[in-house]
Amino acid sequence: MCELSARGGTEAALTLLREHRPGIEVLHRSLSTRDSPYADVVAAVLATLRPRTP
Q1: Helix, strand counts (H, E) of the chain
Q2: Does residue 36 contact residue 29 with C-beta atoms inside 8 Å?
Q3: In this structure, what are the phi and psi dihedrals at residue 4, rounded to the nearest 5 degrees?
Q4: How far apart are CA 15 and CA 36, in angstroms?
Q5: How far apart are CA 11 and CA 42, in angstroms?
Q6: Which among 1, 8, 25, 31 has the fewest CB atoms less than 10 Å away?
Q7: Residue 50 buriedness (CB in 10 A; 0-12 / 13-18 / 19+)
């Protein structure tokens, strides 16, 4: 999705990321508990998205 955005499909990529934000948050928590260096990358992606609304 990040590559899609980089190639000009920004709106499509953001839509996909927003739709899958709960899963991305689960991934981030899992990576964080394992002290993975990728946790920071996923955190950066999450920081670009709007907060979830209930």
Answers
A1: 4, 0
A2: no
A3: -55, -45
A4: 26
A5: 19
A6: 8
A7: exposed
Angle at which helices 21-33 and 38-47 pack, to 10 degrees? 150
**What is the token pair recorded at 21?**
């934000």
Per-residue pLDDT in tens (0 to 9) along the chain, 54 residues? 667 767 777 888 888 889 999 999 999 999 999 999 999 999 999 998 888 776
B/e letters for 21-45, b = 16+ CB within 10 Å, e = fewer, are beebeebbeebeeeeeeebeebeeb
Place of tokens 């709960």: 22
Contact 1, 24 (CB under 8 A): no
Distance between start and end Cα atoms, the chain: 24
